[in-house]
């Protein structure tokens, strides 16, 4: 019906989200207030009747009074933000002082402004009200001045960063995009600040601005605030296909799916008067398989290898040679800033006279690697609200260890999984192992669904690759071959929890399930003929040997588009919206096997680095961790700072995961990301967007300016290292609070 189409239109949901925020309402009121000020001046200058001017004067006064009441008490937040900024020793000193000055200016303004509240509302007149208001304007002017200084300095820093960017590489393109976004944000903030500065300057009679200039400038800065808050709520709502009324029906329809017996036709339900629910259930069967990723966990080891780490070991144990020089030269230009590792170049394992044996490498895998897998698994289980005793299956993978029993046995024992938990350990799948394990888990899930049994499957990928560095250097020295594996690979564990839609029996104690992070819609596996010698990982007495031929980038590039087309063709009709047809319509969680793999994907799929932003971020900050990498990329993609780098500023609801492994095999899948009420939209517990209140409202400054750039934020993307110290977490909390305070200012 037309009414339903209007009521459930995404624009209506977006509008409701916007006006539900304090900042959104404040921006609308402020826009009307300052436009009324400008228009009243215009009517006066054009000699209009007083009766025509009076309504606009009343609008200006009443809306201003409403906003004054709403912002009462917010001065405490800004005093705290100033104190937090003063303690943020890792922040650039200039930005730190500018932030402290700005926050104190706004806090002073709000304090003085609150002192005039009783007088302004007529509750209690005060002879000091005018003096307090003048002091408030002085504080406001000081706060805006500090903000302008901060924005000018930010623009200067961005110019310095831009001069160092190499736009020929994919990561350089991504950095350029990031700089452009930060510059646009800073320029917009500067424009807003300059407009807002006219208000206190005029009120203090420091500059003779009339009401026309002040009203117009205030309207412009208010519209900037409206735009930013609208954009912010759009990011929060993008892809939300289910609003609250629909969600209520969805619960009922999932209940119906769990109790309806095979053989019941939709008409049987319709006869009982539940036509809409039957249609919804039928549509749900078309759209997805009931496979939900409820939890994700990534655990990197505590050490990071800088690019010169390889050179340190090379010079320590091997003479200079043409092949070694070439490998070390390539190592400097991989695009990787640091590789996560269980140790440093001084680790005893890689400082023996001879390369470590495979037995010694296995011991390191068990002692230093398995704890990473346990930590990642616990994170995923905790986020999924799944108790270890509820895990029905465990699908694990690694290509950097081989033993019987496998490492999954010891992880299961440490997690206290039940003895009857069904375990599968995949080997020989290399870098594609993360998605291969997900595919295997999905088929196990569907098997349990067919048997009408609940499934909660723990998927784990663990790789410890950096222990092979001596073996690789030994091969380079002995064979004089160009072997670049030692320059790319790193250590990591990733985990996820995949669930079907069937609940546990009522007698089983369970936690309420969280919203899914991703919903798995389909997958594709393909093996390329005659490519066995191009990509591999062979066992050797001195560890494992990487096989990586120069043909790999071109081979992978050639198969991407056909595999993508084949994957989409296997999805049921209606599984994807009509707007999702080409690769550029999706976000991509591409396994970052190397810079050439990512840049080749851009060319083959006609996508940008921003489509693979999480892949580049993971590659730059951690390197290639083989099978665990794609799980880390999926975890990273859902973070809010990644959303800010989305192409055209639009986060895609649908994501394509892709990885290549020995064979050569390609694994590809389509996921629907939860951008709405939790999960993958960056709204999971512990990393959710703060609630829209007076304390943490939006991405802009109220009357004094619309905060865009976030002076307290790190300009560089966070590497996402999960092994941070508690002090690092406290530092991030401080910076987050500063950013929130800057974003939620609502002054007059």
Automatic annotation (TrEMBL):
Domain Chalcone/stilbene synthase N-terminal, first and last residues per copy: 346-498
Compartments, as annotated in UniProt: Peroxisome membrane
Record's compositionally biased regions (Basic and acidic residues): 710-719, 727-737
Listed Acidic residues bias regions: 691-706
Top-level lineage group: Eukaryota
Entry annotated with the keyword Ribonucleoprotein: no
Pfam family, one: Chal_sti_synt_C
MF terms (GO), sorted A to Z: acyltransferase activity, transferring groups other than amino-acyl groups
GO biological process, one term: peroxisome fission
Gene Ontology CC annotations of this record: peroxisomal membrane
PANTHER family with a match to the protein in the record: HYDROXYMETHYLGLUTARYL-COA SYNTHASE, TYPE III POLYKETIDE SYNTHASE A
The family this protein is said to belong to: Belongs to the thiolase-like superfamily. Chalcone/stilbene synthases family.
Protein name, per record: Thiolase-like protein
Lineage of producing organism: Eukaryota, Fungi, Dikarya, Ascomycota, Pezizomycotina
